[in-house]
C-alpha cells in the first residue's frame, strides 16, 4: 500500500472526547437507528440486532469479524487485520464508520440468502421521500432559466447539492447553510476539460436524490457540449452511509428527470436515458467503493479501469476523506501533493462535513479559524480542488 503520511499527520480517530468523530457515533448513529426502525417494519430479530450494534459501537465493545457465511467475510477480515479484538474506540474513524454501516446491513438481513429482507435497502424510504419532495420540483424547474453560460450554475449545483446528504441532516441546524468556498479551482476544472475535449470523464457519485440530480445534469452538459465523449458514473454496489447512491438510486433519479414537468429537465432526462442506452453514459461500480480504505489502496483492477480518464470528479465528503487518507493534515498542505497517488487528473467537489482538509490558503485558514471550532464540519463551507 502506498505510504502517504508523515508522522505529523495522525489518523483521525473516534476516541477523542468532544471530537466530531466521537459525536458521529454517540449522537448521529442513535438518531439514524431510530429513523431506520421507524421507516421500515423490521421484526424483533432485526430490531434486537440493531440495538446490539448501537450498544457495541457506542460502548467501546470489541471488534469482531463477520461470520464465515457472510459473502464478504474474507475481504473484511483482511481489511480489519490488526483491529479484530480491539475496542471500537481504537479504530480509525473512516474504518469504524464503514464497519458500522456494513454491520447495519448485516443486522437488517440485507445479505441473508434465505431471508425476506434480502436486498432491501434500509435507507430507501429516506431517499425516495427526498426525491419525490417539492424541493426537487423547484430545483428542476430552475433548469428552464439557465443563463447563456450555464457552467458556473451547474458546477455550483453539483457542489452544494451535497448539502442534501441525509446523514448530515440528522444533526444539522437551520443556520448551517450559509455558503462559503474555502478553495475554488473552478477555472482549473473547466480548463482541464477544455484541454482534452471528447475524452472519458469519471464521475464518482456520493449521495442519491437531490445531490445526484445536479450530478446527472452536469454529466449531460459535458456530453452535449463535447467536453466529454463518455461519462462513467460510479455508484456504490450496495447501500452505504445512509444516502449513498446505488444503481437503483441512479435509475430512480433518471426516471425523475424524464418525468419532470419542466421541458428542460425532461429533455435532460431523455438525453441521459439515451446516453445510458448507447453507452456514452455508463453506470459502473466496484466493491472498493464500500471499502474502509483510502484511494491510495485501491486494487489494481479499479486503478486500471480509472486510468486513461481525462479527469475524475470525486463528489462529496466521504470521497474526499478517502482521497486524503482521513488524516489530520495541516490544512495548508498542498492538495496536489496528497493526491499524486490517484491514477488520473482529479477534481474534488465537496461540502465540508468532517475534519480532514488540505490545500487552503493561510489567510483563508486564519479567517475561518476565528469563526469557531466547527467550521470544518457544519456543512456551511465547500471547496472545488483540482490536480490537473
UniProtKB/TrEMBL annotation:
UniProt xrefs under Gene3D superfamilies: Uncharacterised protein PF01937, DUF89, domain 3
Looking at the record, the residues that make up the Damage-control phosphatase ARMT1-like metal-binding domain are: 25-361
Q: Does the keyword Hydrolase apply?
A: yes
Q: Which InterPro entries match?
A: ARMT-1-like_metal-bd_sf, ARMT1, ARMT1-like_metal-bd
List, alphabetically, the SUPFAM superfamilies matched.
AF1104-like
State the UniProt keywords alphabetically: Hydrolase, Manganese, Metal-binding
Record's catalysed reaction(s): beta-D-fructose 6-phosphate = dihydroxyacetone + D-glyceraldehyde 3-phosphate; beta-D-fructose 1-phosphate + H2O = D-fructose + phosphate
Q: What are the required cofactors?
A: Mn(2+)
Report if keyword Metal-binding is assigned.
yes
Name the family. Answer: Belongs to the damage-control phosphatase family. Sugar phosphate phosphatase III subfamily.
Name the UniProt record assigns to this protein: Damage-control phosphatase ARMT1 family protein
